[in-house]
Amino acid sequence: MEKLKYSLKHEKIVLGTMLRNSDVMKHLCLSMGANEFHSDIHKLIFGGLQTLNESKLSYTSPTLITLLPDSDWGGKDYLEELEKVSNPKNIDHHVNRMRWDRARVEVYEEVLPELVAELKDPRSDIEDTIEIGGRVSERLRDARGTNAKETGRGLSGKYSASLRARQVGTTFKSSSYPAIDKNLVAGFANGKVTVICGAPSSGKSSFALNLARRQAKTWKVGILAWESGIQDALDIVTASQLRIPLEKFEKLSHLLTTEEQNQIDDYVANLLDTEQIAFLKPPPKSIRHGKPWEINDRVLDWVEGELDNWGRDIVYWDLFEKRFADHGPNAIANALDNVQDMVKPHRLNLHMVLLHQLNLKEVERRQDERPTRDALKGTAAYIEVPDLVLGMYRPAVYDPGVEDNIIEIICLKQRKGPWPWKVICNWEGKHTRVSGGRQGKLVILKDEKDDYRDGI
């Protein structure tokens, strides 16, 4: 029998994904064995990853290389080659495909020749032949994994029950602004990710905290104010609610009247005692790295564990990317994929809102400085991963002659819903308050290179 051709494609994708994604590495180190790989080099690398996982160490190429024998297996260059074919969103398919390809080779090269020889031998015993045939069947059956096809009757029943459940209790979570809700399909539903973006001083943090304050009347809201700090976040929430000038919380705090101080004390105590809004402190020093400390996979794992204990419905994370050590597209895409997986129903089952600062040079080079998708710096993942992307724009920031009394909320993406659209809200800068809301008209501009559907 001629040798069966075997492709290492799926083995490479599985290993590459393990190198790029710590959650995948942890899961597969526990659910797979080195012998499932056909290539001796891949068996070697997988064994090294298992050692890292057992030692609770994060993967880096130098760390892994020190664990592997000093042999001609490719080293750092080969690890980088594997990382390029990472595919975390479809990893189950590649694991199953790898197992099936391995089973084919084993059956074809090891068991099938024995069965063929038995069938050719006129003196063979029927029971021995059936036993060998049974081993072929068992080995193929072990590799088939789960049945990917839903039965028609079963799927029909599931779909009907799901639709009725949605009629009884909708998954839609309001933005708390009726003018915005008119354009939303899923809203701030569980298992989804929203990105709120804008140039510096555009009002994105204030808008997010206004959303959090209003949504906290209905849902449990969490805030990761790791950029500005919990104190500053509470100042904005309280100033916008009580309409006390923000500067009285800062440089003019000595001018707070007794009545205002009592109002602030009562509001904050009531807000935090009900646990409708909760703040997550930065991670402990034991898992931080660098000065200033950075967000890495260990921090993301810690955040997931803490949020799991919170029981929040909606979480706001201020300037998520700014604390990354690596601002390269791959690192950002990996972190966003981790967050997307983190919020899914089988894990945290909440809605995550990430705040992101736009590339100011990219915004200002355009005829109109309103945010567009091409100004989302870093990686295309900021458009691909979120279910909703909202851009912030205050005209007065770019035109000092315009009264600073409005803020525009521009939808740059909505999965399964209409975009682009614009809602104009009232902006009270001294109170950092966003209120009201009415539909605004979009005007498509022609860029030097492209016609942007999302251009304003």
Question: What would your notes on this structure say?
Answer:
With 456 residues, this protein is an alpha/beta fold. The chain has 17 helices and 9 strands. A hairpin with a 4-residue loop joins β8 and β9. It is elongated and about 105 Å long. Mean pLDDT is 84; it is low at 445-456.
Q: In a few lines, what is going on in this structure?
A:
With 456 residues, this protein is α/β, with parallel strands linked by helices. The protein contains 17 helices and nine strands. Strand 4, helix 14 and strand 5 form a beta-alpha-beta unit.
For this entry, give a set of tags:
456 residues; alpha/beta; Rossmann fold; 2 domains; 9-stranded mixed β-sheet; 9 strands; elongated
